[in-house]
Records
---
Amino acid sequence: MQVDTAIIGAGAAGMMCAAHAGGKVLLIDHAKAPGEKIRISGGGRCNFTNMYCDPGSFLSGNPHFVKSALARYTQWDFVELVDQHGIKWHEKTLGQLFCDVSAKEIIAMLRALMQKAGVDLHLQSHATDIRKTVSGFALTLHGPEGDTSVTANNLVIATGGKSIPKMGATGFAYDVAAAFGLPVTETRAGLVPFTFTDARFAPISGTAVPARVGAGGTSFDEALLFTHRGLSGPAVLQASSYWQDGAPITVNLDPHTALFDALRDQRQNYGRRNFTTELSAHLPSRLVDHLGAMHDLTGNLADWSDARLMALCDALQNWQMVPSGTEGYRTAEVTLGGVDTDALSSKSMMAKTVPGLYFIGEAVDVTGWLGGYNFQWAWSSAMAAARAGGLT
């Protein structure tokens, strides 16, 4: 089989690239259906991009790398594509855009685009013996109907990272990069819950509260969820991408610094009430019980001086703890690290030392925030590879 472009990985980036690459395109994936991570994302409604997507919302060894691709294919370009296909969407919070009906609509749109472009999709298939040739690349395609020798002018690796291995995620992209002499940065789980070996939060598992969670000098204001294993929720997932093993995280249960004034006002009217009862007007009662084991919350509100109130509020704004670890790739939404951006062209995503070899999407050392940013990187990096210089 001779093709212009062979793409390995039929996820968000792979399908987007295949639909726009031009020429004869072969798309290979080991799964029974394409876009499986799209299907399960956003609670089945796919948080397909973010209104506020910009380079500052991404982690990478080179923070400037993402600028070119994001500028040339923006969130509004993808929204326009979604609109053209009649997919209804809505903003949920913080600029997060979701399908009104189902994530399957995004998959159907990409499949329609690929069908129109004449993409040859091979599912339940995998590639081995990938090698460089004088004119491009050669590989062996293993599929339900047997083995096929494939030659391609261009090879695009879009197999993602290691997150969610139960869906078949592996380090395939890193192996290909290494085989061609490209450096790969250290990888670890990102957008992932924290764990504590002492199960300290098990008694209040399921309790959620608005909070500011910080790690590595960066903090996020969103919901925090206490779990049997540790901490989760959007604020925690966001902070996890900035956390290093053994370092502390900071939880601020009073991010808007309103608690001190509120409790002082309550003291004037309800001073005879138990302090924990009044604190429970601002924090979940189960959390207040948990805090009672850490701080002296005894007495009536009238017994609390301004200094005592301030000391407690300060403590709740600077609750530091050291997680034992994270839940790892099993539940991580993304993989931090990947193919070193120094080895790739930011304009085309092509390897600088291997003409015709491209890496796109999560396989690259680019990780976005929670909330549609990683999908936008998939769309933008895919279009950079498909358009820059042309893959045909």
---
Amino acid sequence: MRARVRFLDICPLRGSRPFRDLWIGSSASQLGGQIATVAVLAQVWDLTGSPVGTGAIGLATGLPMLLFGLLGGTLADAVDRRTVVRATTAGQLLAAAGLCAQALADNRNVLLLLALVATGAACGALGAPARRTFPVRLLPADQVAAGLALTNVSFQAAMLAGPALAGLIIARWDFPAAYAAQAMAVAVSLLMVIRLPAMRPESADAVSGTRRPERGGWRIVLRRPTLWGSMATDLSATLLAMPIALFPLINEIRFDGNPRTLGLFLSAVAVGGITAGLLSGTVTRWRRGGLVQLTAAGVWGLALACFGLAGPLWLALGCLAVAGAADTVSVVTRSAVVQLETPDAYRGRVSSVEHVIGVAGPELGNFRGGLLASATSAPFALVTGGLSAILAIAAVAAINTPLCAYRTPPPTQPAAPKPAAPGPADAATATG
């Protein structure tokens, strides 16, 4: 195998202008979202000075994501998906403008701030299922995983750079500038979405482009082992082994509560994810997508169990970097399997199920870890959580042979050129 395939595969960016537009817009939106997240957290703390207030941010974002994410799945299977994403991105832009306006007006009402946050989250969740279906419609089947890897890399980069950039902007120009940066990023995303081609669900009405979604949209997840197995693997990894809520306690008992160390924990996960993304060219070319996801999810659980036992800081950070890399591989392969295995008529609703699992799993996993750590200890919660995740993933692999055997489609071969029709001279030669 040539060395170049070991690195990030940028063929989707070079070969598809619509996907390139989508990637640019999504990258800008993700960076703006990270900036806004820090700004909202800082402003709510400034207004309330209470952890209850900052905790309410999770409620203001989580509930709309769950409720509108499922509704967005049905919508994405009924109308042109580009139209859905255009409208919801425009809604996000209005919410970002509202955040900027309230900051400029020196708003002191935390409920108004949280309402604007909830509005933006609802718009994003409503468009998320439709947006998830774009890569598989814009790229050849053999490039879908590479396209998803590119998207994941931009997300990890935004996670790494966004908070630091937000801190610089807030320190120099205060909250209005941070929200203005988010609004500009969402405006770029909207412009890129406008440039995309129409993407009606297959079998949509040829005249109006609307139809009733085919029945059994969400039940298809249970009927196809590759789909429920892939989602069960992800849920096992996040529900049983999510470590974020335990970072402060681990930092307190092992590293004297140094806030710099706490920041390093989060950075290590992001660095591992970006590294895996930059070296994803080989992984996205492996056709055993189901087996790759199962293995990566198992490595995630093992790395976090080792993090629970790690003493030296370098070892703890190394375990988190491995976990971040494994998570990136698992997410990319899972998304590719789900999109490729779902008929287009059901992709919106199946994507909404995937979205809800991706939102709820980590939050419930953090809650589980916090409860267990309060009753026992943080190291015990991490070790047992990681080992439990490995056992659950092994059980999925044992009972789900189709997922283990799943192969992504082979590379698309270019069509052979049709022979040219014989001209008058050729016909004369043939008859002579």
---
Amino acid sequence: MNSAAPALTPTTRALAWCLHLLVIGLLSLAAVRAVTGERPHAGWIIAASVLCGLTYAVGPVLPGVRRSRRAAALWLAAVGACWTVLLALSADGVWVAFPLYFLQLHLLPRRAGVAAVVATAVVAIAGFAVHQDSFSAAMAIGPALGAAVAVAVVWGYQALYRESEHRRRLIEELTATRADLAAAQHTAGVLAERDRLAREIHDTLAQGLSSIQLLLRAAERALPQAPQNAARYVDQARQAAADNLAEARRFVAALTPPTLEGTTLADALERLCTTTSARHRITARFHLTGDPAPLTTAHEVALLRIAQSALANTVRHAGATTAEVTLSYLGDHVALDIVDDGHGFDPTLLPASDPETGGFGLGVMRARTQALGGTLTIESAPGRGTALAARLPLTPPSATEPEAHP
């Protein structure tokens, strides 16, 4: 009934109404017994009972009693004064002390509430003893036992309420944490899918469009003097566009690349070298070493994409005449090496990635290898060509398969 008291719930409202009815019943009992028992000062007893009931009824109506401990203390003092008058007139007023215990413990701070209960119990015992013109231990047992029961009940309820509130806050925090976790997982899933699409677009569409651009430029240069060569370049550009269209449809559905369907990684890399040699002015050769071991789809896709990206970089930037692609099975590892005789570069002076000029290839290749627990190393120097090596561990399929099907 104040800021410090527990908030009202259906259960506490029911208890409050029970307390109200108890007070009204006990006051009514005192008034009825005064009339039926033909006791002296019956009119004053009835008036005191009515006054006490009216004073008590004011409390639940006034919002200040529920919100302010000071207002609650003043209201309890007024109710206690009316009850003291009733007790002085009739011994039946002693029973009203029991609901007063609960009010005092509920509305006042713990120490003040206990002090008020003790004072009320002492007044009740003293008043009853005065009406009986004697005092015995039995007279003190009832009010004292009622006070002890009230203290135990109210403190027990408050402890249960605090525990309930603590659990409610924990449940709210858990619900909020689950919501945050779900949002974080959703965001992580979106970022992972975005990263997958970015890698696939770079290694397929971007490289394919770059190849088409180079072929069309070659066709443009060949048109005046050698229209047959121009037609061949255009036909190769058309085939590259068809291949990349198929690649785009497959990676959108997160399926195996067309170049890996119904074949091995070694065959796919060999075809890649053959296609690169046919479309561009470079000789790409494929080599296989070691005993081939079964690879997961994630391993095969990663190695194929790395080879595609590395050869595309060689064609566009290296000015190389030859490129050697080697797939090596090394027991518990598989390695892919791409070596060219191009211009080379300083790996420490790589330009920053830019949407206009590119520069995402090495970062994408490194991300692919790291996602599978592997490493990517690059050795190059100006005028000495470039050697790229991707090394992946042969982990169980269950550990890497989700990478191929995010």
